[in-house]
Every structure is written in structure tokens, then in C-alpha cells.
Amino acid sequence: MIKNTINFAIIGCGRIAERHIDAIVKTKNANIIAVCDFNEIRAKEKAKLLDLPSYVSYHEMINLHPEVDVVIISTPSGMHFEHAKDMLQEYNKHVLLEKPIVMTIEQGLKLKQIADQLNLFIFPIYQHRFNKAVQKVKNAIVSENVLGNIRVGTVRVRWCRPQRYYDLSPWRGTWAMDGGAMMNQGIHYIDLLRYLCGEIKQVHAKLATFGSNIEVEDTAIAILEFESGALGIIEVMTSARPDDFEASISCVCDKGLAVISGIATNELKTFTPDPSQEKCCSEIFETAYGNGHNEIIRGVVNTLLEKRNPVIDFDDGMRTIQLLHALYRSDEINGWVNVKTAISERLGRLDMQNNDLKWLAR
After folding, report:
1. Tell me, which fold does domain 6-127+293-312 have in CATH?
2. pLDDT score recorded for residue 271
3. Residues forming a β-bridge with 222
């Protein structure tokens, strides 16, 4: 029998789970089967959206629903590896991973090894790549040559996350389970810097913690050199007060300037080759998650049913994790590091409190 529907289940029923459910409902040949969260109330809240079964153990969920093809993992960052490994190794399921896909390079290599051995897919989620503004700039640089060659690429995220934000969950603001402003809040913008401007050769970063009592940074500045020879700047903070002020990415090229901002890189603020494109390539998003999960889910379905290449493959997703490790490693040694070889000593570091397996929604 030819398979014509891809069945999804979700582990981790935080706010993003609703966006996944909505995207699955809107995608042809996609079906949501069940949801799971170690917090029973949270699991039931998401299950009520479509009268789905809910579970506090993902082992029970998968054993009762063997028809599940893909498991979406949207648990806290430090849990991704264990949950993904179980889905691949124990249950032979494809996985769709929210950001950051893993905390360490070693974890990523292990998951890839398991997936390749079992002929399974690991799909990363970088949904903002599919925004109209982002796609317009990408095409203008890569295929249309409207903007020309990159000279300077800049990320600027000036957000406010007060102490009460970190106090909501014990895993937030920790090296083992979360990472800091770059790994959590800035990751989509740092990924887009790679996506739009090309791979980065080396970085020099400085981190600080100004506004909250947390292990990790709430402020980061970095300078970088692209493999093309272009230069770049990363500025990411959650220490802005009293509000969120800005989140943007800009590409200064030899034929013009493009600036993307908005609540989720959804507004093309500046496009000097043709300013008329600024309005038509901007979107209105209801939430900061945007609409890109629709394209992510559609891509998963097309890959599994029609044998198309993933819209974002795992190796591509891991290159953003590698870049983040380089940024953190640079701060650790207080110097320039090569992006391809740098590994942070802090990201994913386990300690007595955060290695407690009670955090694993098993």
C-alpha cells in the first residue's frame, strides 16, 4: 500500500506546540496523532485544541500509537538530545527538532550517526528562513545578483528578558539546559546571517551578564570574518530595559543595502535596489513564531512522501550550532577562533542540579 499521510506526534507542550498543531492541520497529507508533556495540565491544554489524546510519558504515547511517523521535539533545549535519541534508536521514528537542535557538537554527531544507520531523517527548525522578506533578500544576493557581493552583515537583537522570565523555569539561563542570549533568543538571527551572507570563517566574541542573576550571558558582541572575506557584527542581548527595542539583520552589499526587522524578521525595512519591494515583501505575523512552521511541516511531508530533499538538512542546521559554539569558545579563550573547529567548554555542560533526570519528560 502506498503511504499518503504523514502522522505526527509532539513531545513538549509549551507555547510553540500550538504553532506546530496549526501548521499540521493546514498541511495536506499531514495528521496530528497525540501530544505529550511531563506537565499533565499543559499536555491536556494542547490536546483539547483538536480533541487529541495526551500523555505524560512519551514511551507510552509511542507504544500506543505505533502509526506515528515523525515526532516533533519542543522540550527545553537540554532535553533535545535524549528525546531525539530515544525516538530514533528505540522507536525508529523521524524527528523534527526545535531550536537549538542540540546543545553540543558531540550530541549532533551522535544523532546523525544513529539516523544514518537507521535511514531516518532529523529535520531542524529554522522557520524564519521562509519569510517573504528573507527570501527576497536571499534571492537578491544569490540568484538575481541585485544586491551584489556582501561587504558587511550585521545582526542586532536588543530585547528585554527580566529576572522573572528566567525564574519561570529552572532550566532557563543555565549552561546545561539552555545557553544564553545567543543560543536561545539570538539563534534565529545568527542562523539567518549564515543563510543570507554565507559561511563564517572566524569569530571574536565577548559575553557579559548585566541584567539578571543567571549562569549564562544576557549580552554578547562579536566581530566576524566570512569565508568570502566580508566582515560582520553580532549584537545580541536580553539585558535591554525596560522593553524589547529592536531585532534586525542587515546586508550591506556592493550594489545596495537590505534591512530586515519586525517581530520575527517579517518586515523588509530597506531594499535600496527597489524600495517598492519593501511593502510587498513584508508580512503581518500574529506571534513572534511567524508562519514558517507551515513550510517546515510541508517540507517534511514532501521529503517522506515524495522523496524530495529536506528544505533544511541536518548538516546545515548543525553548522549554525557550530557557529554558536565558536562564539562561546571565543569568549572562553578571549580571542579569535576558527568556526569549523571550535567547541565551547560551557554549552551543554552538566552539573549536579541540571543533570537531574527529573527534567526528562519520560
Report:
1. Rossmann fold (3.40.50)
2. 98
3. 205, 234
CATH 3.40.50.720 domain position(s) in the chain: 6-127+293-312
Beta bridge partners of 260: 249, 268
Strands (DSSP E) contained in the chain are 6-11, 30-36, 54-55, 70-73, 94-97, 122-124, 150-158, 200-208, 219-226, 231-237, 246-253, 256-261, 267-271, 337-338
Distance, first Cα to last Cα, the chain: 33
Pick the CATH number of 132-268+318-338 from 3.30.360.10, 3.40.50.720, 3.60.21.10, 3.30.230.10: 3.30.360.10
DSSP conformation letters of 48-84:
TTTT--EES-HHHHHHH-TT--EEEE-S-GGGHHHHH
Query: In the prediction, which pLDDT does 1 show?
Result: 64
173 is written with which cell numbers?
Answer: 539561563
Count other C-beta atoms under 10 Å from residue 102's C-beta: 26
Could you say which DSSP state residue 285 is in? -
pLDDT the model gives residue 358: 42
DSSP line for 193-204: HHHHH--EEEEE
Q: Which of 207, 203, 199 is nearest to 183 (CA)?
A: 207
- The SS3 of residue 43 is helix
Q: pLDDT below 50 — which residues of the chain?
A: 352-362
Distance CA(134)–CA(282), nearest Å, equals 9
- CATH 3.30.360.10 domain span(s) along the chain: 132-268+318-338
Cis bond leading into 100, ω under 30°? yes
Which residue matches cell numbers 491536556?
44
- Cβ contact 305:169 at 8 Å: no
| Residues 219, 268: Cα–Cα separation, whole Å | 26
Distances (CA, A) of 156 to 79, 94, 334, 356: 28, 34, 22, 35
